[in-house]
Write a structure and sequence with these properties.
14 strands, binds flavin-adenine dinucleotide, 25% helix, 6-stranded mixed β-sheet, globular, alpha/beta, 8-stranded mixed β-sheet
Length: 391
């Protein structure tokens, strides 16, 4: 059986446990003792709180019913919505952008405005250009100062994308198309200068054989949809288990899986450069109400304002889900990810990422505070560092 452990499971842990819960200790290969070296050697990570260079916080734009992708007439403008992608904005961007592009091109307009220059705005703008449109991006902020720039940087297409109760057959169909189209488009960024996108191995780490009785939603609130296993598990190679003695992280149990990682600094620059090379224009602009869109010369407007749509369009269905990253300087030898005790580590080339993922997807739910929490950052780094202190 193929098993997929995506970043969603990776960064919250519980999903990984659910996957591992189907296993027992016999599945984990044990290494030879004595003089024989373990078969899996991970380059030591020099993690320490004194190495923290930056703490970033942002709010995921979560909607219980999933992203808003409909078309609305606002005054004299046709507004094509493309926002509300929770923890999956980068992962679904190309597929979601394709839907917005089809809706925008259906208006017959050649000059199209895109409001927003995050994951959704940039990719939609590029797809519109490829469809023959002349595009101007209007945005308050540009990368690296948009919320998208503070994401973990993994392909996690069902991370906080909707509640399970809203994952209808129709939603799943659209989601699968978005996830697959995005995954395929990301392949075209592999191997480029600056390594905007790459595959890395990641390891879920457990002190004991995982307990199959643990639940991913222990507090009785409505569960978030988990779609990867059901709909796209063929996209990744099967996971590999390592028992105590077969690896360099002490007397623990590891499960290795493959992650598609976005080095967001290089990736966003690549997208911006492509957009400009195609003749795209960018104007810094802030809108405070939909009526202000009337000042644009374009009649068709794509709304890719992410969490900003809550204020701009008064969409109270957007719930902020706070997430914080602690960053340390890159280590060239460290090219693997880790998940241990509900903390994720991602080996980004533009700065190593440490993140407390919490017990479940409700971690950070309805929390719009964007002030850095130093104690949480140190907890994230110390948890991962403990794997190497004890190894
Ligand atoms: C901690 C964390 C980790 C994450 N990790 C991942 C991950 O690994 N993989 C993944 O796929 N997703 C991840 N996400 C989710 C992802 O970051 C979001 O889904 C994504 O950033 C949403 O992109 P966006 O383009 O819709 O919004 P934004 O990035 O917020 O961009 C919105 C744009 O609109 C502009 N704007 C907003 N309001 C206005 C206005 N009124 N007037 C003018 N301009 C305006 C902004 O300036 C900006 O340019 C993570 C999120 C968090 C918080």
């Amino acid at each position: 059986m193929r098993r997929l452990v995506g970043r969603r499971q990776f960064l919250k842990g519980a999903g990984a446990v659910a996957v591992l819960g189907a296993l027992d200790g016999c599945r984990f290969a044990r290494g030879a003792s004595g003089a024989n070296a373990p078969r899996l050697q991970l380059s030591p990570l020099h993690a320490g709180v004194d190495r923290i260079t930056r703490i970033t916080v942002c709010t995921r734009p979560f909607r219980a019913q999933g992203p808003r992708l409909d078309v609305e007439i606002v005054g004299t403008k046709t507004v094509v919505h493309n926002y509300g992608h929770g923890g999956s904005g980068w992962s679904l961007s190309w597929g979601s952008g394709a839907i917005a592009t089809a809706n925008a091109m259906a208006t017959g307009e050649h000059d199209i405005a895109v409001i927003g220059c995050g994951a959704l705005g940039l990719t939609t703008a590029l797809l519109l250009q490829r469809a023959g449109a002349s595009v101007t991006i209007y945005a308050k902020d540009l990368p690296p100062n948009v919320r998208s720039s503070f994401a973990t940087g993994l392909y996690t297409p069902s991370s906080r994308i909707c509640l399970e109760e809203h994952a209808t057959a129709s939603f799943k169909h659209t989601w699968e198309q978005m996830a697959r189209q995005s995954f395929q488009t990301y392949q075209s960024f592999l191997g480029l200068p600056g390594t905007p996108v790459e595959f890395v191995d990641s390891y879920s780490v457990f002190d004991d054989v995982p307990d199959r009785r643990r639940s991913s939603q222990p507090d009785g609130r409505p569960p978030f949809a988990e779609l990867d296993q059901e709909l796209i598990r063929d996209l990744f190679p099967r996971a590999v288990d390592f028992g105590p003695g077969s690896h360099s992280l002490g007397n623990r149990y590891l499960q290795r899986y493959s992650s598609l990682m976005f080095n967001l600094t290089a990736y966003a620059r690549t997208l911006l450069a492509d957009f400009r090379a195609n003749g795209g224009k960018i104007e810094i602009a802030e809108f405070h109400a939909p009526a202000e869109l009337s000042r644009l010369k374009e009649k068709t407007v794509v709304n890719a304002t992410g969490y900003g749509a809550r204020a701009l369009f008064g969409d109270q269905s957007i719930i902020p889900v706070r997430g914080q990253l602690a960053r340390t300087s890159p280590e060239t030898d460290v090219n693997y990810g880790l998940f241990y005790k509900n903390v994720g580590f991602v080996p980004r080339r533009d700065g190593l990422v440490f993140q407390v993922a919490g017990e479940n997807e409700y971690y950070g739910y309805n929390d719009e505070t964007e002030a850095p929490d130093r104690a949480e950052a140190e907890r994230a780094v110390n948890t991962i560092a403990s794997l190497f202190a004890a190894a």
